[in-house]
Amino acid sequence: MSHSELEKRRKEATPRGVGVMCDFYAAKAENATLWDEEGKEYIDFTAGIAVLNTGHRHPKIVEAIRKQLDLFTHTAYQIVPYSSYVTLAERINAISPVAGKVKTTFFSTGAEAVENAVKIARAATGRPGIITFSGAFHGRTLLTMALTGKVVPYKVGFGPFPSSVFHAQFPNARHGVSTEMALDSIERIFRSDISPSQVAAIVFEPVQGEGGFNIAPDDFVTALRDICDRHDIVLIADEVQSGFARTGKMFAMEYYGNAKPDLVTMAKSLGGGLPISGVTGRAELMDAPEPGGLGGTYAGNPLAVASALAVLDIIDEEKLCERANRLGAELVEVLETAKGNCAALVDVRARGSMVAAEFNDPTTGRPSPELTKQYLRKALDAGLLMLSCGVHGNVIRFLYPLTIPDAQFKEALAILSRVLAD
After folding, report:
1. How far from chain centre, in Å, is Cα 387?
2. Interatomic CA distance for residues 260 and 138, integer angstroms
């Protein structure tokens, strides 16, 4: 069936609120390559929005899922538990960036992980308040929309939102927000909106995802840890997009030394394409909710758990953290060179393979989502699939599978260079 026919069927059968970027339909995929229904081939630099650090259909993941299919597909862990869930929790605990004894529980989506982290923090502290940041993205449920610091398209028409959620500024040197200003905005919340004694948690992304791949400065994260220690507030690091080797470390929080989080949320590339998420944290916090307070019918689904265990093996065996750093450095070099021919390219940010390119209108100097869309369209026409992000929609984020073959990666960089030079 043609793409135009499928588009017509989609618009008839599904609501417009589910925004769809591409006007073609996937037929199959392998590692970093995707083929559409009409046979056209694309290099996939989106990875299902950071879900496929290990690529499409990695053979070890496929085999792990097949083996689990021969055993059982579902029992509901809270009804009849299974050993693979416990094994995965043990393995996540062993690599967690949280200090001391930790425990882990699993859910299905990133939003569920964030929402349950908030539940855990509130249960542990007996407090209602949550502080998060401008530009943040934490999910699409009612609570996680409240935490999210971007209105369009995520919040339009969906209010009112849960109360006791407050947004501070996130450091962003390009847009004139220093670490000092960001920290002052937290103190302003303490003075004007809610006492620190009523704040359960501060939730932040060590590298903002939807916000534009903005990297949290070292001094900012250290100061957050100090604020939380001073006021007995739980520090929650949202690593849904930055986890599992994307930044060159298993978790981005590993870059911040002794500034350890109390809870970490994870999802996306943990499952290698299957839906699974988790919360890892200090054991005494994780044990705060009463039995039955956490969970979900599909939480820690056995097929997804099998896939996640394979993901951890692949990251280790194929040295994907080291590979993320190498590929990221190659991409940054291409982008920095492109600046000479592309006046719109004003900033390049990178932590491992979590790389972003920001575009402004060369005439006005203002953020330009229009130019960004043009670059994305030209790349797509040339067979390179990429995504935008950022509060202004003027950032291209690069989310290639870390398993992408070297020759294909160089081909993609050549396409990118041509697009930016045009």
Report:
1. 13
2. 20
Tokens 């990695």 found at: 58
Instruction: Give the largest Cα separation in the chain, rounded.
Output: 63
Q: What is the pLDDT of residue 361?
A: 97
Q: What digits encode the pLDDT tens for the residues 306-355? A: 999 999 999 999 999 999 999 999 999 999 999 998 999 999 999 999 99
Question: Which of 64, 50, 91 minimizes the C-alpha distance to 302?
Answer: 64
Task: Determine the Cα–Cα distance for residues 261 and 99; give it in Å rounded to an integer.
Answer: 8
pLDDT tens readout for residues 53-66: 999 999 999 999 99
Separation between Cα atoms, residue 145 and residue 150, nearest integer Å: 9
Q: Which residues lie closer than 8 Å to 237 by C-beta, 6 or more apart?
A: 97, 204, 205, 206, 251, 252, 253, 261, 263, 264, 265
Contact status, residue 384 vs residue 416, Cβ threshold 8 Å: yes
Is 362 in contact with 342 (CB distance < 8 Å)?
no
Q: Name, in order, each residue with C-beta under 8 angstroms of 135's C-beta and a sequence gap of 6 or more.
A: 149, 150, 170, 172, 208, 210, 211, 212, 214, 390, 391
Retrieve residue 366's tokens: 């203002």
Q: What gap in Å lies between CA 238 and CA 221, rounded to an integer?
A: 13
Show Cβ contacts of residue 111 under 8 Å, excluding neighbours closer than 6 positions. Answer: 138, 139, 140, 141, 144
| Nearest of 117, 413, 69 to residue 286 by alpha carbon | 117
Q: List 154's β-bridge partners, or say none.
A: none
pTM score: 0.97
Helix (H) or strand (E) holding 283: helix 283-286
What's 22's DSSP letter?
A: -
Write the CA distances from 231 to 202, 224, 422, integer angstroms.
11, 11, 53
* Helix-helix angle 59-69:302-317, to 10 degrees: 150
Exposed/middle/buried for residue 350 (C-beta within 10 Å: 0-12, 13-18, 19+): buried
Mean pLDDT (whole number) for 134-156 = 94
State how beta strands 234-238 and 26-30 pair: unpaired
3-state SS, residue 195: coil
For residue 102, the SS3 value is strand
> Quick one: which H or E segment has residue 278?
strand 277-282
| C-alpha closest to that of 377 among 386, 368, 369 | 386
